[in-house]
């Protein structure tokens, strides 16, 4: 059973560019959440997708957007990249039950470096 | 608002010694609490979670945590450290479908 997969593993961009990160959830999961983990910090919630809709959003600017496809996979897009966007981007999947105790399973992450 | 505080950004122990990683939470509702581990250049792996079924929660790799409401704590312990336990450990509280993480504790294990 494949776990959560993310691509690419590493990415280097320059300021002002746009980037798209991809995530495939664990088999049987229908909800995808994205987190940003800056160096030396804990992950910060960006947003969550369920039924192809953004259900909840953290304190991130509109430059961060996402999408969920009918097969539950998801993309994270970041426009007008800033140096401060350099981080490890983590995708987590879960099965929606309406209860906050659902376990989120994390992928290996995409490490983004903005120069 | 919900939050977690991890006391001690670095903890060092000898192999075979007790591991104690501290986490205190703040929540206006009964919390769901999690411990995750992150090995270098990897994602997060769930160690254990508390969902109010039992106050002492056993996880993988010999780790366990005890929920203490009176102390608003959820400390992670392991009786005997192994070299392979060296990693970053994150405590998290579940808040309306998102996880709120602490800043992490780096565990070093010396031979």
Question: Short summary of the structure?
Answer:
With 115 residues, chain A is mainly β.
> Ends of chain A: how far apart?
37 Å
Give me the count of strands of chain B: 11
Oligomer: heterodimer
CA distance, first residue to last residue of chain B: 41 Å
Largest interface: A-B, 28 and 24 residues
- From the alpha carbons, calculate the radius of gyration of chain A and give it in angstroms: 13 Å
What characterizes the major β-sheet of chain B?
6 strands, mixed
Mean pLDDT of chain A: 94
User: Any idea what the shape of chain A is?
Assistant: globular
Major beta sheet summary of chain A: 7 strands, mixed
Q: What share of residues of chain B is helical?
A: under 10%
Average pLDDT taken over every residue of chain B: 93
Helix content of chain A: under 10%
Q: Please work out how many helical segments of chain B DSSP would assign.
A: 0
Could you spell the SSE succession of chain A in H and E letters? EEEEEEEEEEE
Structural class of chain A: mainly beta
- Per DSSP, what share of the residues of chain B sits in E-state strands of 2 or more residues? over 45%
The outline of chain B comes out as globular
How does this model look, in words?
- The complex is a heterodimer of chains A (115) and B (111).
- Chain A is mainly β and 115 residues long.
- Chain A contains no helices and eleven strands.
- In chain A, a hairpin with a 2-residue loop joins strand 5 and strand 6.
- The mean pLDDT of chain A is 94.
- Helix content of chain B is 0%, strand content 58%.
- At the A-B interface, strand 4, strand 5 and strand 10 of A face strand 5, strand 9 and strand 10 of B.
């Amino acid at each position: 059973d494949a776990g959560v997969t993310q691509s690419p593993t590493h990415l280097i961009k320059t300021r002002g560019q746009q980037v798209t990160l991809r995530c495939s959830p664990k088999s049987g999961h229908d909800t995808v959440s994205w987190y940003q983990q800056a160096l030396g910090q804990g992950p910060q919630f960006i947003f969550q997708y369920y039924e192809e809709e953004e259900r909840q959003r953290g304190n991130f600017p509109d430059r961060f957007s996402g999408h969920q496809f009918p097969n539950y996979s998801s993309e994270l897009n970041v426009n007008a990249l800033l140096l401060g966007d350099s981080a490890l981007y983590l995708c987590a999947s879960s099965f929606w039950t309406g209860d906050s105790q659902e376990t989120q399973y994390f992928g290996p992450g995409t490490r983004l470096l903005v120069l | 608002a919900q939050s977690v505080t991890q006391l001690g950004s670095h903890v060092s122990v000898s192999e075979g010694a007790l591991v104690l990683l501290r986490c205190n939470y703040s929540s206006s509702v009964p919390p769901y609490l999690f411990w995750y581990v992150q090995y270098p250049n990897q994602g997060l792996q769930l160690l254990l979670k508390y969902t109010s079924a039992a106050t002492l929660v056993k996880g993988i790799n010999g780790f366990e945590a005890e929920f203490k409401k009176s102390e608003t704590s959820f400390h992670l312990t392991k009786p005997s450290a192994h070299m392979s336990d060296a990693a970053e450990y994150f405590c998290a509280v579940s808040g309306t479908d998102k996880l709120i993480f602490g800043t992490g504790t780096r565990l070093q294990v010396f031979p």
